[in-house]
Structure formats: structure tokens, C-alpha cells
Design brief:
The structure holds 3 protein chains of 3 kinds. By secondary structure, chain A is mainly α. Chain A has 2 domains: 11-65, Ubiquitin-like (UB roll); 74-145, [2Fe-2S]-binding domain (DNA polymerase, domain 1, Orthogonal Bundle), CATH 1.10.150.120. Helix content of chain A is 38%, strand content 7%. The longest helix of chain A has 18 residues, at 128-145. Chain B is α+β, with helices and mostly antiparallel strands. Among the domains of chain B are: 5-50, Uridine Diphospho-n-acetylenolpyruvylglucosamine Reductase, domain 2, CATH 3.30.43.10; 177-287, Enolase-like, domain 1. Helix content of chain B is 34%, strand content 25%. Chain B is built from 11 helices and 14 strands. Chain B has a 5-stranded antiparallel beta sheet with strand order 4-5-10-6-7, with no helix packed on it. In chain B, strands 11-12-13-14 form a 4-stranded antiparallel beta sheet. In chain B, helix 9 (226-232) runs antiparallel to helix 10 and helix 10 packs antiparallel against helix 11. Chain C folds into 3 domains: 3-26 and 458-595, Aldehyde oxidase/xanthine dehydrogenase, molybdopterin binding domain (Aldehyde Oxidoreductase, domain 4), CATH 3.30.365; 32-137 and 210-259 and 265-297, Aldehyde Oxidoreductase, domain 3, CATH 3.90.1170.50; 304-456 and 600-748, Aldehyde Oxidoreductase, domain 4 (2-Layer Sandwich). Chain C is built from 21 helices and 31 strands.
Chain lengths: 146, 289, 749
């Protein structure tokens, strides 16, 4: 996909204002809340701290790209089943971050999940159900592979 | 943010030429400090020069004889994900994993952390303890700077006009050496260090052969407390020796009071963190081949 | 009916807006896009207290891409009057003043001017071109300082009200009130043990992840259309209409999805500014706050100074309680000190009580509600003192509370007598919980408990239900959904109708499309909007009974309905079957409910916290945490648990690390999420929950409301745990590592 932007526009701005993908959110614009998390060449990054121009040639996945057509990804399903969202604003960032974790580590411990997600702030849930959702998704993904 | 232009040179030569033409240009590696500063108006520039396409700045290789070559733009996730770093420089892998959180580590580099020259930078005390040397390129060619001389004031480094940090060289750790960086933060992640201690020790027959100790966030620059390490040389590896070194470190600290901590509290932390870091470094040295 | 006999209430369906929220499709305020949209930015005062001498916007107006600039002078010219927007009488100038300052700026971050431009970057550039001359005045930052004789005065027209009467004295104390009952002196005389302590709490912010936003279009037909993230679309409508001197019908507010509020998105900040910019530019204008603006330009919760004195007999009966609460209102009066005073001793059955409350203005952002506003500060103080009393009496902390627990018929010092409440049940649930009985071995570890109360509110809500031919039902309501309430409301309708929760399609709509509905706050949505849905569903059943009667050629009185099945004699029909036949029996069936319920039931909550304190650094690790709450009835237990966990974690952050770190000249130095330290996932254990259900006799399903009471006890529980772990009683919030270290050092000396 191609887009035009000013050098000073962050990847987050480009996604939301130039391309029109508003699923990725701005919470702080300085890398502290993770609401703007996207996958960039397989790594999760805060898109508020990436310039749009730096995305040249990169593979970017946003929350809009996590589901397969109208099949929700197991992480998304698990969030719904575990009531792991309340206002839902931080949820896109968490979904992308959690998916990235499970892509590379099929059986993370609770401690590992919490460490991985420490750059994603949630103010509504207290994280309990989010961690449980990720554990459930991990288990389901392992069962699918088995 | 104010308007700026963007360039992404593909070679070191090209970069040096570009910087010579644009004296006010700022260098962009991970962007996790620079973009925040540009947005807040703390830094201004007409040109952002992206150094991530320069091969030398992306190098990450380990040679048992020469040690570790760490390109200035290598992001943290590559550092802690590298098998050679994990086994030869575990403390460095650890440090790469505490700068910010996962997303920050997806972009931020230790070279950038060094060049940003915050007194509280998490990577610098360990680099000092490990005796790292910086390779700098500029209009007059390349030169080397000991990492403890790299930062000159809060947010200022030794780079002259048109210069850039190319890579950091970590000498191979001698046998029976161990290192550790320990910081204090009020939460468990995502905070700037209130104080930090980076230490490296070399042991021999139950005695400290040598040690290097450096502190974060208690002086205008990361603080190499030469005397603390020298005081350990020749000392038996005992809690008393370790405590004595920790007290010297505490005495050298010149902290301020700010929103992250009071001066008294930071001084106190220096001694606690230095002691705890030394204890871990000693344990690692004993377990090392 | 117990939950066990219900088919929908008490179950855990997937929330109706789930797919949208996990795919990023749900639209929040900043996601609004429309043709011709301009972007706005707000210029804010750099001074904590200053007179505005001159504003020159000409250079900003001349910048290419800028289409409008406004200041406080752009509000209509209306005479000063008192307006009541739900918080009691307030001068119109105060309401407008906080949105765009006139004459004076009263805090760093106070909005002074705003621009609309073709891009957010141009708007930001334009701000630098607005020239403002200030005369800087001395500032005052805490309640005790602001209450002194020689304190700088914020409002020359603020006359102190004392015990309900205007005193004629201008000061920073907007109001001093007192609640009292019994004979305090006699009560203390009877006491064998008395504890008296002083406490300070710092200003903290609600910390919602989504910054405030508003898009406004002053349309060609004179109507002002607003899209924003708010806890109360009707509140926005009424406030904007008031500020712009428009009839409410001229303003339509469409609530977008909202990314957290906790009380902080009840006040209005950007909507009137966006409207003024739209009128001037002729285009729709969007304003979104930066995180820094959220900290410096919205409504944190009051910092406070609280004194508590309590006395008890050897047998554990508390004989007297006295409270002094001085809360910082911020720049304008209205600190939630009243609710704090209502709740401070609310968990106890006391005969002799005096509570003095002070609403004090200071040069900080004008405070707003934060989840059980005022009660958390108060509980930190009172529950620490109760803990100390228990220690001095040699009683288990829960036992002391049980011996004095409020019950049905207990009178509070502020007047009301409790109806059926669950204070005893909550304390017993805490005592019986595995957490309370679990051993806690190891040095530097301790367990603390605390309880708290929130009265919850009723307030008006409206709802309409229309039946679809396939047996599903469309539910239209006006309560913005912050925590899953569209589903808890839909579930109550579904329960009445006897259909699955999934067969109800709830939508939250704009102020043109539904009857008046008060804010999403006060733990009221599941209670009141749920009740409106209940009424609407009953209305639907009444109408459908008539339709069945028509089909069966009998009287409506002969038709019964139960669990979604209509019966008359031998004949029966399901809701779904009947729904298919509405067309032939008379046309659409639309039910309505409009309520302003009186039967509000308060909620008690308790917290059990295990901590470990590092004696060399003062750092606290929360090892285990349990939240207990009487919710009356848990409509959707998973979201009820979620509220308890969320409030607990906010309480933990409030207790351990969050604060506005102020410079001496009134600047917040840590206005970013880096240094305003909210808990991350790595800072917490799992949060266990125990839902207690003492049904509220005032609600058809027994609902009390869950949102707020759970944030009240955590700071006190943690303080009490820290005492047992480290031997120090903390009297200040936050109990951050340096503060605990200082306390440990002080004690050693």
C-alpha cells in the first residue's frame, strides 16, 4: 500500500489520518501507553514513535489485520470470552501485542505475559482478565497446532 | 512537531558528507528519545538523518578474541535475542531488556541510549563497567573514545560537528568475570532509573582481581567511580569488602532532588544497588567458565 | 427470585459490541472523520495564577491554514447568573471560565485561546503566534495554605458559605459544612482508647487511556452538532447550550465510544470551544487533547488534608468519631468533600459524630469526580485510624469492624438511615475468604484490610424497545457504555421478555433519539438504565399480551406470560412466534421506560492486601489482593468482577505511586505517563474478587451498582499492610518508596 505524508507525521498519524485505519489509538504520543502498538516487520512497536517515512518497505500489521476475514483470531475470541476489555480503548494495542507474543512463544508463563505487556497500559481492567485471556488463547493455539 | 526534512543515507561516507552540509541535523536511530524531544520542542532541526540503513551501525557480531561489536543502531530486541550476547555478555542482554518495554525495545538502540546522554541512561553504567570503547566517525576520519568519557553533561556528548557514533566495542570478558546492572525504579518496568549501578568484577582465587563500578542518575553524567573499583582490587571476596566499595560509590554520588527522588534517597540507593549488583556479579563470576 | 432461577441475569454472554471492540472497528471520538474537517488546538496558560492583560491573536489568524481563532471573549455576551447543571447553583462565569479563561487564569494549563486549522500541525504552529501578556500573581497549592488569612485569593467574588449561610467574607473557602449527631464530647469521655491522626493525600488523575476529544459543527440551520467521548451526552448538551445561550433543542450530542472516564469525562472542556471555532470558520472542527493537556487541563481529583479522631471502649465499641476534611477544589469551587464526609464513617454504627468539611479553591486544575469521589481520601484516613484502634484494643481488625458495622436502620451523620445494606455480609465474606486465612510467612511481609462505602445514585434514564418480526428486540438507550453496560442493560430486558441476551440488540444513541438520560457515573447505569429497560420490557409484554389475546380471541387479562411463553388456558405461544404475528394483530410493538428511581442501594466494599516491603529501598510489592463487594445483584458477573478489579488497581496506583508532583510555582512537573506512574501489568498480581449479593429491595432485580465502592478501601488496606510489613504507619499518599524509606529512617532514630 502507498501513502503520502510529511516527514514529521508519525506512523500512527499516517495510519489514522492519512490511510484511515483508526483502530490503532493515540493515548499519550510518547511511547508510554502502548495504545498505538502495531507489528512492524514482526516486532511490536509504538507507532507514535515511528515516522511514517520509516515505514518505507516495511510490513505493518494493525489491529484491523488480526482477524482473518470475519473469523476472529483466538486472541480476540479469548478477550471477549474472558471479559478482558471494558472501555475497549487499550484493546487494539493489547490484541496486537498479545498476538505477537504468542506468535513467538506458544506457552508463556503469567510472569512472562505480564512482562511482555508492561508497555501496554489498561486503566479499566486491572490486567487480571487480560492475562487470563492471553493464557487461554495460548492454550487454544497450542491445541490447534497439536 | 515543527517541519523537518528526512534523509536515509546508505553508507557511512554518505552520512558524513550529509552531516557536513547540514550542521543542525539530528540523527535518528530508534526514535524513542528523539521523537519525544522534537514533539516537546526540546530539540529542533531542519533535517532528521536516519542512520538505520548504514551497514556498520547495524553490525552485531562476537569474536572471542576481539569481543562484541555492537553497531550504534542495533535495536535492543536484537541484542537480547542474540545467542552470543546471551552467553558472552548476559548483563548486556539484561540491560537491553529493561529499557522501556517490549515496544520500545523493538526500536530503541543502546547506541542511541548512549548518545542521548541522559544521566539516568540504563545502558551506560554497564558499558563503563565492561570497559566499552566507542568508535566515532566524522569529517576527520574515525576515532575512539572510552565510553566513560562519552557523556559530557546532561543530554550532551563528546561528538563534534558532523560526527556520529558508529559502534561500541566491548572487550572480551576475562575468565571468572561477571557483570550486572541494577537500577531502582518505583514500578517494575517503564520507569526512568532513580539510581542505578553497573558493575563488573574479575575474580581470582577468592580475591577481586579487578572491578569497575559506575552509577546512573546521581551526577550530571553517568558516573565512573574509579576509586570504588580500585578499592576492591586485591581484596578478598567478602561482604565487608563489597560494603566498603558500595560506601565509596555512595560517597562519590552527587545527586539532585527531582520528581524521581530526593538526593538523600538516591545516595542511599547507590550504596544498596552497588552492593546488590556486586553480589550478583560475584556470583556470575564464580559460575563463569 | 434468586439468580439461580433466572435464565439471563447472572450469566456471562459475550458483550454485544465485542466484535467491534476487538477489531478496532468501534469508533471513538478521535476517530471521527467528515468532509471539510478542521483540526483545533488550545493555548494554555503557563502560569498557576495570573491576570490576562492582553491577548493578540492577529498573527495566528494570518497564518496560512488557520481559519479561526477564539478566546473567552467569543462567548455570547450574557449577564452573570446562577445555573444548575446538576451540581447545584454555579455562576455562569465559572462554568465558562474553566473552558476559556476571562480576566484571570487560575492554573497552569487553563485554556486561554484556541485555533482551528487545516491540520493539527498547523494548529500547533499557530498557537506559538498568539501573544498573551500576563501579570503573574502569587499562587496557592494546598487546602491548608489556601485557608490561611494571608493566602492569595482566587475569586474576588467567592463569599464563604458556612453552615448553609453566606458569611460575607471573601476567602478561598467556598463552603464549610458540618454533619453532626449525638454528643461528641460525651462519646470521647466514654472511650478507653483514643486515636487522633492527620493525613495528606496528593492530587491524582483518573488516568483514562483515551484523551478528551470533541468535534463540533455549527450547522447552517443554526443547530450545533457535537460528536464526543463523554460520560453524559445530555450533560454535554445542557452545558453547551447554557454556555452558548442556546435552547437545548438547538444542540445535538452524539456520544462516541468512550475510552474510560471514571468521572473525569462528565465535565465539558472542548465541546464549547469546538462549537465556537466551527461557528467562526464555517466548518466542522475536531479537538483532541494531548496527554499533557489531559493532566494539566482536565479535572483530577482533590488532594486533601484530613484529620480523624476516634475513640473506643475496651469491648470494641466505637464511642465517638470526628472528621475534618479540607479538600482542594482546584480553580473553581465544587470539591467532592460532601461525598467524602458522607462516606468517611459510613461503615459504622455510631452515636456521636462530628464531621467538618471544607471546599477550598487552589491554583490547580478544577477538580472532577473520580470513582466514588471524595470517599477514597476519607477512607485512607478513617480506616488507618480504625486499624490503629484495633491494634491498641488487641482486636482482630475485621472483628472490630464487625462489632461496629452499620446495619439496616443505622443512621449516618449526614442524615439518612440505611435500608437493607450488606456491610456485615461484606466483612464476614472477608473474614471467611481463603485469603484472610492464608498464612503469610517471610520477613518484611504484612497483611492489611479496610472497608469502604459508596452511596450510588439513581437519576433519570430512558429506554425504548421495539420488537422485530424474528423475535429479536432493538433496545435504544442513552447511557454511554464504558464498561459493558449496554449488555447488562440488555440482559435485564432479556430476562423480563424471556429471550436470550443475544436476542436483544442494544444501541447507545444521541440526544435527539432517546429520552433524557443522566450520566454514566455514580454506579447507576445497570441500576437505573437497567430499570428503564425493565419498564420498557414490561410495557412490551403488556402490549404483546393484548396481541396474543387478539389471536386467541380472549381477554388480555386471561393471558399470562412467563419465561418468554404466553399462555391462556391450554394455548401457548413463544415470544418469537408471537413476534412474527405483530403485523397482523395491529402493527409494531414499541415499549418504553422512563425512570427516576428512588430505591437506590449503597454498596459496601472491602479489600485484603498482602505486601512485601523492601526495607532497604522502601519499595512495596503487592503479593496478593482480594476485593469484596456487595453489588446487590450481579447481572453479568464477569463485568462485575472487572469493575472490582479495575477499581482495586486504580486504588493501588493511588496508594503507591500516583501524584501530581508540583513545583513551588504551581506547575505539574510529571505531566506524562512516564512520570505519572500508573500500574503496569508487571506491577500487580491477579486480583481476586468475591461478589456478595445482598439484594437491594429498591430494584426489580436487586441491583445496587458496582462501579465505585471498590476503589475506596485499597489505599487504606495497603497502608495497614505496610504497617505490618515495615512497622511504619503512613499518613500521606502516595506511599512511594522514598516516603516509606523516610518513615523507616525516622522510626529508627
Amino acid at each position: 500500500m502507498e501513502f503520502l505524508c510529511e516527514p514529521r507525521q508519525s506512523l500512527l498519524e499516517c495510519l489514522r489520518d492519512v490511510i484511515g485505519l483508526t483502530g490503532t489509538k493515540e493515548g499519550c504520543n510518547d511511547g508510554n501507553c502502548g495504545a498505538c502498538t502495531v507489528l512492524m516487520d514482526g516486532r511490536i512497536v509504538n507507532s507514535c514513535l515511528v515516522l511514517g517515512v520509516e515505514a518505507q518497505g516495511a510490513q505493518i500489521t494493525t489491529v484491523e489485520g488480526i482477524a482473518r476475514g470475519n473469523q476472529l483470531h483466538p486472541v480476540q475470541q479469548a478477550f471477549l470470552q474472558n471479559a478482558a476489555l471494558q472501555c475497549g480503548f487499550c484493546t487494539p494495542g493489547f490484541i496486537v501485542a498479545a498476538k505477537a507474543l504468542l506468535d513467538q512463544e506458544p506457552a508463556p508463563s503469567e510472569e512472562r505475559i505480564r512482562l511482555w505487556l508492561a508497555n501496554n497500559l489498561c486503566r479499566c481492567t486491572g490486567y487480571d482478565k487480560i492475562v487470563r485471556a492471553v493464557e487461554q488463547a495460548a492454550q487454544e493455539l497450542r491445541e490447534v497446532k497439536a | 512537531m515543527k517541519w523537518f526534512d528526512y534523509a536515509a543515507p546508505a553508507s557511512l561516507d554518505e552520512t558524513v558528507k550529509l552531516l557536513a552540509q547540514h550542521p543542525g541535523a539530528l540523527l535518528l536511530a530508534g526514535g524513542t528519545d528523539l521523537l519525544v524531544q522534537l514533539r516537546a520542542g526540546k530539540k529542533q532541526t531542519d533535517l532528521v538523518v536516519d542512520v538505520k540503513h548504514i551497514p556498520e551501525l547495524n553490525a552485531l557480531h562476537h569474536d572471542p578474541a576481539k569481543g562484541l561489536t555492537l553497531g550504534a543502531a542495533v535495536p535492543c530486541y536484537r541484542i537480547y535475542g542474540d545467542g552470543a550476547v546471551q552467553s558472552a555478555f548476559p548483563a548486556l542482554a539484561e540491560v537491553a531488556g529493561i529499557i522501556g518495554g517490549t515496544q520500545i525495545q523493538g526500536r530503541a538502540s543502546i547506541g542511541g541510549n548512549l548518545c542521548n546522554a541522559a544521566p539516568s541512561a540504563d545502558s551506560i553504567p554497564l558499558l563503563i563497567a565492561l570497559g566499552a570503547v566507542c568508535r566515532v566517525a566524522g569529517p576527520s576520519g574515525t576515532r575512539e573514545v572510552a565510553v566513560e568519557d562519552f557523556c559530557t553533561a546532561p543530554g550532551r556528548n563528546v561528538l563534534g560537528p558532523g560526527e556520529l557514533l558508529v559502534s561500541i566495542q566491548l572487550p572480551p570478558g576475562p575468565a571468572r568475570s561477571g557483570a550486572r546492572y541494577l537500577r531502582f525504579i518505583p514500578r517494575n518496568e517503564m520507569d526512568i532509573a532513580v539510581a542505578g549501578a553497573g558493575v563488573s568484577v574479575v575474580l581470582e582465587d577468592g580475591v577481586f582481581r579487578s572491578a569497575r563500578i559506575a552509577l546512573a542518575a546521581v551526577a550530571p553524567t553517568p558516573l565512573f567511580v574509579r576509586e570504588a573499583g580500585e578499592a576492591l582490587a586485591g581484596q578478598p571476596v567478602t561482604p565487608e569488602a563489597i560494603s566498603a566499595a558500595a560506601e565509596i560509590a555512595r560517597g562519590a554520588a552527587r545527586p539532585i532532588t527531582d520528581m524521581r527522588g530526593t538526593a538523600d534517597y538516591r545516595r542511599h540507593l547507590c550504596s544498596v544497588l552497588t552492593r546488590r549488583a556486586l553480589e550478583t556479579a560475584v556470583q556470575r563470576a564464580r559460575e563463569a567458565r | 427470585m434468586s439468580t439461580a432461577e433466572m435464565t439471563v441475569v447472572g450469566t456471562r454472554p459475550i458483550r454485544h459490541d465485542g466484535a467491534d471492540k476487538v477489531t478496532g472497528r468501534a469508533l471513538y471520538g478521535a476517530d471521527v472523520q467528515m468532509a471539510g474537517l478542521l483540526h483545533g488546538a488550545v493555548l494554555r496558560s503557563p502560569h498557576a495564577h495570573a491576570r490576562i492583560l492582553r491577548i493578540d491573536t492577529s498573527k495566528a489568524e494570518a497564518l496560512e491554514g488557520v481559519l479561526a481563532v477564539v478566546t473567552g471573549a467569543d462567548f455570547p455576551d450574557s449577564p452573570e447568573r446562577l445555573v444548575d447543571l446538576g451540581e447545584g447553583d454555579t455562576p455562569l462565569s465559572y462554568i465558562r471560565g474553566n473552558v476559556l479563561a476571562r480576566g484571570k487564569t487560575l492554573y497552569k494549563g487553563h485554556a486561554v485561546a484556541a485555533v482551528a486549522a487545516t491540520s493539527a500541525h498547523v494548529a500547533e504552529d499557530a498557537l506559538d503566534l498568539i501573544e498573551v501578556d500576563y501579570e503573574v500573581l502569587p499562587c496557592v497549592l494546598t487546602a491548608p495554605e489556601a485557608m490561611r488569612e494571608d493566602a492569595p485569593i482566587l475569586h474576588e467574588d467567592l463569599v464563604t458559605k458556612e453552615f448553609g449561610e453566606k458569611t460575607g467574607r471573601v476567602s478561598n473557602v467556598a463552603e464549610h459544612f458540618r454533619y453532626s449527631m449525638g454528643d461528641l464530647e460525651k462519646g470521647f469521655a466514654e472511650a478507653d482508647v483514643i486515636v487522633e491522626r492527620e493525613f495528606h493525600t496528593a492530587t491524582v488523575h483518573q488516568g483514562y487511556i483515551e484523551p478528551q476529544n470533541a468535534t463540533a459543527l455549527w450547522n447552517n440551520d443554526g443547530r450545533v452538532l457535537i460528536w464526543c467521548s463523554t460520560q453524559g451526552a445530555f450533560t454535554v448538551r445542557d452545558t453547551v447550550a447554557c454556555m452558548l445561550d442556546l435552547p437545548v433543542s438547538q444542540v445535538r450530542v452524539t456520544p462516541m465510544e468512550i475510552g474510560g472516564g471514571f468521572g473525569g469525562k462528565i465535565p465539558v472542556y472542548l465541546e464549547p470551544v469546538a462549537a465556537l471555532l466551527s461557528r467562526k470558520s464555517g466548518r466542522p472542527v475536531k479537538l483532541v487533547m494531548s496527554r499533557r493537556e489531559v493532566f494539566e487541563g482536565t479535572g483530577p481529583t482533590p488532594g486533601s488534608y484530613i484529620k480523624v479522631k476516634m475513640g473506643a471502649r475496651r469491648d470494641g465499641r466505637i464511642t465517638a468519631a470526628q472528621g475534618y476534611l479540607a479538600y482542594e477544589a482546584g480553580a473553581y469551587p465544587g470539591a467532592m468533600v460532601g461525598p467524602g464526609a458522607m462516606c468517611i464513617f459510613a461503615a459504622y454504627d455510631l452515636a456521636n459524630v462530628v464531621i467538618d468539611g471544607f471546599d477550598v479553591v487552589v491554583n490547580k486544575p478544577s477538580t472532577a469526580a473520580y470513582r466514588a469521589p471524595g470517599a477514597t481520601n476519607a477512607a485512607f484516613a478513617a480506616e488507618s485510624v480504625v486499624d490503629e484502634l484495633a491494634e491498641k484494643l488487641g482486636l482482630d481488625p475485621l472483628e472490630l469492624r464487625l462489632r461496629n458495622a452499620a446495619k439496616e436502620g443505622t443512621r449516618r451523620a449526614d442524615g439518612p438511615k440505611y435500608r437493607r445494606i450488606g456491610c456485615v455480609e461484606v466483612i464476614q465474606a472477608m473474614r471467611n475468604h481463603p485469603h484472610y486465612k492464608a498464612p503469610l510467612p517471610g520477613p518484611n511481609r504484612g497483611r492489611g484490610v479496610a472497608i469502604g462505602f459508596w452511596f450510588n445514585v439513581g437519576l433519570p434514564s430512558s429506554c425504548s424497545l421495539s420488537v422485530n418480526a424474528d423475535g429479536t428486540v432493538n433496545l435504544v438507550e442513552g447511557s454511554t457504555d464504558i464498561g459493558g453496560t449496554r449488555t447488562s442493560v440488555a440482559m435485564q430486558a432479556a430476562e423480563v421478555l424471556g429471550i436470550p441476551a443475544e436476542s436483544v440488540r442494544p444501541t447507545v444513541v444521541d440526544t435527539d433519539s432517546v429520552g433524557y438520560t443522566a450520566v454514566t457515573g455514580g454506579s447507576r447505569v445497570t441500576f437505573a438504565t437497567g430499570w428503564a429497560a425493565y419498564e420498557a420490557a414490561q410495557d412490551v409484554l403488556r402490549q404483546m399480551k393484548e396481541r396474543a389475546a387478539k389471536l386467541w380471541e380472549t381477554d388480555a387479562a386471561a393471558v399470562e406470560v412467563s419465561r418468554g411463553v404466553f399462555r391462556a388456558g391450554e394455548r401457548s405461544m413463544t415470544f418469537q412466534e408471537l413476534a412474527a404475528r405483530l403485523g397482523e394483530t395491529g402493527g409494531p410493538v414499541v415499549g418504553r421506560g422512563a425512570v427516576n428511581p428512588r430505591g437506590v442501594g449503597g454498596s459496601f466494599s472491602g479489600a485484603i492486601a498482602d505486601v512485601e516491603v523492601d526495607p532497604e529501598t522502601g519499595k512495596v510489592t503487592v503479593l496478593r489482593f482480594t476485593s469484596v463487594q456487595d453489588v446487590g445483584r450481579a447481572i453479568h458477573p464477569a463485568y462485575v468482577e472487572g469493575q472490582m478489579q479495575g477499581g482495586s488497581v486504580q486504588g493501588i496506583g493511588w496508594a503507591l505511586n500516583e501524584e501530581y508532583y508540583m513545583s513551588a510555582d504551581g506547575a505539574m512537573l510529571n505531566s506524562s505517563l512516564l512520570d505519572y506512574r500508573m500500574p503496569t501489568s508487571l506491577d500487580l498480581p491477579m486480583i481476586d474478587t468475591a461478589i456478595v449479593e445482598v439484594p437491594n429491595p429498591g430494584h426489580p432485580f436487586g441491583v445496587r451498582g458496582v462501579g465505585e465502592a471498590n476503589i475506596v478501601p485499597p489505599p487504606a488496606a495497603l497502608a495497614n499492610a505496610i504497617y505490618r510489613a515495615a512497622g511504619v504507619r503512613m499518613d500521606r499518599l502516595p506511599m512511594n518508596p522514598p516516603a516509606i524509606m523516610e518513615a523507616i529512617w525516622k522510626q529508627r532514630d
